[in-house]
Amino acid sequence: MVTCFLKYVIDPLKIAQFEHYSKLWIDLVNEMGGLHHGYLLPHEGPSNIAYASFSYPSLAAYEEYRNAIPQSPKCQAALDYAVEHQFIVSYERNFFKPLFEGVETAARLF
Known about the structure:
single chain; alpha+beta; four-stranded antiparallel β-sheet; 4 helices; about 45% helix
């Protein structure tokens, strides 16, 4: 499994628009074979930083998702919304191997 972790710098005056965009992508990733873990929107602390993470079974499965985006009208509509409303200043994308089980949990599985 691979988890994509995103850090966004957003316009703090457009958090509502970013929230709408985030909800679109949660549904899209889940519809396209991934598991979206949600977004973390600004609350306390910096008003212009947000995070998101989602997982795919493998990096190859993630690449299939990325390659399907240009052919998806729903994905294109979400991307168009972001361009129209200009709420994302920049973002960083990193990939991680998630670990969901502790020693005790893994021992109970076998």
